[in-house]
Amino acid sequence: GTMKILLVFDFDNTIIDDNSDTWIVQCAPEKKLPNELQDSYKKGFWTEFMGRVFKYLGEEGVREDEMKRTMTSMPFTPGMVELLNFIRKNKDKFDCIIISDSNSVFIDWVLEATNFHDVFDKVFTNPAAFDGSGHLTVENYHAHSCNRCPKNLCKNVVLVEFVDKQLQQGVNYTQIVYIGDGGNDLCPITFLKKNDVAMPRKGYTLQKTLSRMSQNLEPMESCVVVWSSGVEIISHLQVLIKE
Fold this sequence. Notes:
Elements lengths: L1 E8 L10 H4 L11 H4 L7 H14 L4 H8 L8 H10 L4 E10 H10 L8 E5 L1 E3 L5 E3 L16 H14 L2 E10 L5 H5 L6 E4 L4 H11 L7 E2 L5 H13 L1
Parallel strand pairs: 1-2, 1-6, 2-3, 6-7, 7-8
Antiparallel strand pairs: 4-5
């Protein structure tokens, strides 16, 4: 079989330097949502909330091309373009996936506009599509029974299933490197093994949570490497492929 390093990326605030779901609000009238819509979010039910946001945008006459223009104007995180180009040059050593709470339409638009589709072997995210009346609709990625994660997506379940499936195809990962920023990246990271690397973005929820856990001496098997630019991630990956 093949031996490779698996790179797992979050999308929002990791590949792109903002949150795609809040960025799209720029399309709304006066660039904001009505209070009652804004207040309708319930913790753990973000995808349902976004469904209502997309319905509102559609009813306000926001069309697909306008949403696409807005989405593809979102900036990449510093050093990310360099990192993705580095991974592309070394695809023989890396497999690369995205596990994201965004949606398939937004991620497709961004990867297409920036020509980075080929870097990623798979994208796991909430499926979205435009319906007959031109409104964007979004569904939960899957159902799961993990009580730590939002209802629509447990990133750990996705990661474990992917790694198992790859093993059946004869692809064995020597290491997993997990690059993310948010609270929903904690679940997959706590299941990483001794050889793996957790890479939280400096100053974001995931990094703060991990440092609190280490102060409380909660055991973590993987090593933790904090980053603020994709260029720092390149340096770390260069060390891993030289080993």
